[in-house]
Amino acid sequence: MTxxxxxxxxxxxxxxxxxxxxxxxxxxxxxxxxxYSATSVFEAHVEQSYHEELEVHVRELGRLTRIGEDGQLxxxxxxxxPRYEVPLSGFYWLxxxxxxxxxxxxxxxxxxxxxxVAHSPQITHVVEEGPTGPAxxxxxIRQGPxxxxxxxxIATDQSELDRLIDSFxxxxxxxxxxxxxxxxxTGIAMISFGLRPLDQLRRAIARLRRGEADRLEGRYPSxxxxxxxxxxxxxxxxxxxxxxxxxxxxxxxxxxxxxxxxVTDEAERMAEIPxxxxxxxxxxxxxxxxxxxxxxxxxxxxxxxGVRTPGTVSHLPELxxxxxxxxxxxxxxxxxxxAEEDCEGATLPVDPVDLSELLSILLDNxxxxxxxxxxxxxxxxxxxxxxIRISDDGPGLSDDxxxxxxxxxxxxxxxxxxxxxxxxxxxxxCTAMGASLTLERGVEGLTAHIAFYGLDRxx
Length: 459
Ligand SMILES: Nc1ncnc2c1ncn2[C@@H]1O[C@H](COP(=O)(O)OP(=O)(O)O)[C@@H](O)[C@H]1O
Ligand SMILES: [Mg+2]
What we know:
Strand order of the largest sheet: 4-3-7-6-5
Order of helices and strands: HHEEEEEEEHHHEHEEHEEHHEE
Shape: rod-shaped
CATH architecture of the largest domain: 2-Layer Sandwich
Structural class: alpha+beta
CATH topology of the largest domain: Beta-Lactamase
Strand content: 15-25%
Number of helices: 9
Number of domains: 3
Bound molecules: adenosine-5'-diphosphate, magnesium ion
Helix content: 40-55%
């Protein structure tokens, strides 16, 4: 199908892939933006509430501390947050005053805090090395009853804050991945939904090509409908053009045949006049050539002007039935034997008039030259290939003759009636159908082989 491969437009990427990439990019950007803003907001929020909590606790510590009857520091009651009592929990406090025993949280079973952090009556904070790693440390000083400076220090491990933020980030990431996958999946579903009319159009075109429809059927969205309407108008126009071409070709045949017959008649009469024989011979030769040309071009025009009328198909082997019965009448002393393989209900997307003409030409040749039997074999491959072989047991042709046999007017056996046009027309029809026609020499006789390939029966 050289014609078809030439017509094939080069695909430049896939529409589906484009949409898919666009959606993936869009989803990724969206998810990344959500992730970034959510983590920053959460981080700021958690940090702020952490610091506020520490400030409250250090104030509480200041309120609960007093100098006992023994002149030592003591708490009127434990701090409200129980985490300060769990050993090495990451929550610690320390109260010191010069000349007194320092007071510290039960959680601080080892290590210590720097009481210099508390250096002003204003609450200040720094990140200091604590008993269990870097800690956010708050402190302030207050005057005792005897004018001594009491240092209040409270600390929480930085890792506590990091752990909170990390666990939030992990959870958020997981959810966003799930959300991204859901969005991508719905995106893919949307693409399929959006491109459905194009799939429908492709199927409609395939039906048209297979001849199951004579136009593109179905309803299409407003973006595609004008294109479909244009295509349908084009299909209709080309169908009409073919029909018109056939009528015009027929008319031309009639208008040329009569004058040609008259001229031939005159030339034959001239041939009887002594002295005019030479001219008559030239005239007769030329008119015969003109007749051949007229017949040849008529046959070409008849074979759908090279284009199949859209919506027509040929059914094999049914198509052969009337042709074979005509051949049996035409060549009563020859056997016509049909053998087929996997061809039950096969349809070919070709014009039945053309295919009938092609088969008639080849069967007639085989019938004329066969000694006793003509065999027709049909082979239908599942992959859109289709083979027709017409063999006879006649004298056959030499390789040189096979090459010339397709030329207009070539005849090797003037004793047998014919015009020398059959094979030329047959090859033209084959070319127009997208099939190949070859003559092959068999053990005896000649085989004409028509091969269709890549016919889209399903697509
Ligand atoms: N099956 C065949 N066996 C032998 N010779 C053939 C066969 N088919 C065609 N030919 C030869 O090829 C020539 C051209 O065939 P074709 O174009 O059909 O013209 P026509 O049949 O009108 O003579 C024929 O004249 C014949 O000599
Ligand atoms: Mg012939």
